[in-house]
Amino acid sequence: MGCATQTPVIIRREVAEDVDSVGAVTSAAFAVADSDQEPSETRLLRSLRRDIGWIPTLSMVAVRDEQIVGHVVCTRGWVGESAALGLGPISVLPFHQRQGIGQAMMHAVIGGAEAAGEPLIALVGDPHFYNRFGFIPASRLGIDAPNPEWGAQFQVRTLTDCPPSVTGAFRYAAPFASL
């Protein structure tokens, strides 16, 4: 008796036809029990799509059996006057979590950012999870979080084209300010 295997996951760029499915994945991933309210991450994603900071090549979906099961996006951010990226939201359908999909999406979006010549990616998240992708507390590199209360959860991953002079306050794309 062999082990059952799952269909592989393909990570690809999002296309226009994916928008509704991506919204549904984000809503499912961030749903609050006993609440009918749309998650703030879903509203944020919708606002980011309309913002000048939206980078279509860094909005990626995870597809399994022709169904979108995950999404990740990086949008334009800034460290002082230097361009950078802000990652998030990242979401995986609850039934598909803990299967390596989030990890695959992280590798894909980091690779895409690297190939595009971006200097760094910033995010807010669990340091124990994101350190496996090379993220470190931003303060160690002289990069200040938009909210000082984030502490070590505000992290950055420098990429090949990141000059050491990239220091200062980080700013996400404008829609993040409405969170």
Q: How would you describe what is shown here?
A:
There is one protein chain. Helix 1 (19-29) packs antiparallel against helix 2. The chain has 179 residues and is of the alpha+beta class. Helices cover 23% and strands 32% of the residues. It has one domain (10-178): Aminopeptidase, CATH 3.40.630.30. The longest helix is centred in the middle third of the chain and has 15 residues, at 101-115. Strands 1, 2, 3, 4, 5, 6, 7, 8 and 9 form a nine-stranded mixed beta sheet that branches. Helix 3 links the parallel strand 4 and strand 5.
**Structural domain count:** 1
Strand element count:
9
- Uncertain segments of ≥5 residues (pLDDT<50)? none
**Helical percentage:** 10-25%
* Name of the CATH architecture: 3-Layer(aba) Sandwich
Rounded mean pLDDT is: 94
Shape: globular
Distance between the termini: 50 Å
User: Major sheet, described briefly?
Assistant: 9 strands, mixed
- The H-and-E topology, N to C, reads as EHHEEEHEHEEEE
How much of the sequence is in beta strands?
A: 25-35%
Structural class: alpha+beta
- Annotation field: number of helices: 4
Radius of gyration (Å): 16 Å
CATH superfamily: Gcn5-related N-acetyltransferase (GNAT)
Query: For this structure, what is the CATH class?
Result: Alpha Beta
Query: What quaternary form is this?
Result: single chain
CATH fold-level label: Aminopeptidase
Salient structural properties:
single chain; 179 residues; alpha+beta; Aminopeptidase; 4 helices; globular
Short structural summary:
This protein is of the alpha+beta class.
Question: SSE layout and pairings?
Answer:
Elements: E1 10-13, H1 19-29, H2 40-50, E2 54-64, E3 67-79, E4 82-92, H3 101-115, E5 120-124, H4 127-130, E6 136-137, E7 143-144, E8 154-158, E9 168-171
Parallel strand pairs: 4-5, 7-9
Antiparallel strand pairs: 1-2, 2-3, 3-4, 3-9, 5-8, 6-8
Helix pairs in contact: 1-2
